Amino acid sequence: MAAGTVPVIIHLMFRRRAKTVYFPSIIFLRQLDREVIRRRRLQEILIMILRVLVLLLFVMFLAKPILRANLFFGESAKSVVVIIDDSYSMQAKDGRLLFDKAKERVISIIKNLRSGDEVAIILASGVRSHGTQTVSLSSDFEVLRQEVESLEPGYRSANLDLAFNRAVELLRESGGESTLMFLVTDMQRNDWAKLRGAEKENEIPLVVVDVGPDSSQANAVITDVEILSEPDDIARKIFNFRVKLRNFSSKQRQLSLGMYTGPEQLVDETNVDLDSGEEKEVRLVFRPGDPGWHGGYFKISDDGLPVDNFRYYSLRMSEEARVGIFARDLMVGGSFDQYFFLSKAIDPLEQGYPFRVDRFSQITSEVLSKFDVVVMPTVADFDSAAFTDLKRYIFDGGKALFFVERGFSKKRLGDLCGAGSEIGSIEKGIYKVGKDAFGLSRLFLDVDVYERVPISLPESSSSYVLGRFQDGKAFIIERLYGNGAFILVTTGYNLDMTNLPFRHASVPLLYEMLFRLMRQSETRQYLCGDVLEIEPSWDRISFPSETVVELTDADEEFVLNEPGLYVATSREGRNYVTSKIAAANVDPTEGDLEKIGYEEFERLVPFKRWERIASNRDIRQKMAEYARGTPLWNYFLYAAIILFFVEFFMANKAGRKV
User: Residue 463 sits in which domain range?
Assistant: First the structure.
């Protein structure tokens, strides 16, 4: 402050001193001279004040003053939330694992906290270990530091929307006099592109700590695996897989692709050339051999992000299903036609796989119990007792496929379809089935029939229309009934009523319906983070990490947190048998390691006040600033510059040099 007196001293030392000289010829100008002197003195005082202010403001700029929330009791207490990006892209390397760099930055933030501060750690994926994370602010910095050191990168995508919302909620509920949010991330473009782009109304300051490489990294990914096997392939115990690959690199890649079953048994392989940004499909073949559950993985050549070089799969090839076709008398033309065409369509090679076909002519509970699924070419040729046994068979878990032939019973059909259903009379004409009908859109087949029975169903969670005619009327209906289910086709399976037996769609369409009823091959693929529902019969679940969990009656579901095969087993005597294999995979979109550009980042970041830093030194500087309060030094510098130019203008106007 003493420097502020320097301009005053200089002004007093070098100010103009007027010498009194009496000159008679200008004695009449004395009064006017006094007024000029008075104005000049006022200007000199203003100039002196401006010079003092410029010097004082410059000194304040050098002192870097801070405006504290608490003006009288030292540094203000802070509430800090740190979001750490644990998505699987953080498993990439830039000299070392990106997630290790992120943990180092988070620990640096914790070390720069002071007594009275509080902090919380949020994972951007939203989970910790095998459960949902619970977060609260804490002042136990040592425990938090140890917790951060023990963290491992996850296998899910970052959900920045949820992470930001949770962080803002914590900071608004905190007792700190100042709040601050950190996000430690690799700045992957895909994660930011998922933000909803909300208005930037949040006043909480955000500091983004960039631990990603300076440029986008090269990476290739297996994006999808799909089973394309047709019924005749399955009958020959062959599964055709379509594997999709994508090259996120800026250069051409040559990849080796292998298909493995079990731990490391190679069953098929090929080489693939991918241009920059190209996506390509590859076909591989798997012959499981024995019925039951099978699991394995596809693998491509190693690159900078190994976790998405694998794609796990599981499928279930069941034992041959026992199919019973109802035919009372084979010598009668209609019954013979129906049984002949249905049996040939279901088991054309007569090899008994995947369906073993047999005929039955009596409908009793004892006879029905021999079959996994029964095919009923008519809804008329049985009495009340037989109909009761048939409904009980389905209710107890059986499966049935019905065709509506001439002479059907409206009463029986209405009873099957349930209350509120409407059954019409036979309509004759040429009725084309819609392209989006069940099974046909995938098979690219056309079907038309000559006769049909119009059936309409009430809205229900247990009844579904799987396929429609082009005019919107139902073609194939599925209904869940008790523990079982049945499918109803609103036309017949003979040459008189329909042309289905001689149409090329006949066999695949029939297979589609039987496979739906029997769920012959289950091939659902899960993403990490999906929930797997636990069946009551399961006793154990083995995780990809080889951890085995004993299940209890209270267990209903669990989260698939890591990629790999989850094997559920049930006890049979002294042994455990496989009840299900679930394949969980990472989200392939996370494999695009492109960094977000500055302009796009500025547009998407949902905060008014934000800064982007990188090093531990930057972190220490930001923590020190926010520990003291709001920095004011830049404002003092701006004010000093403005006042300097004002003083310069006034001094020149007054005829004085600076």
Answer: 321-518
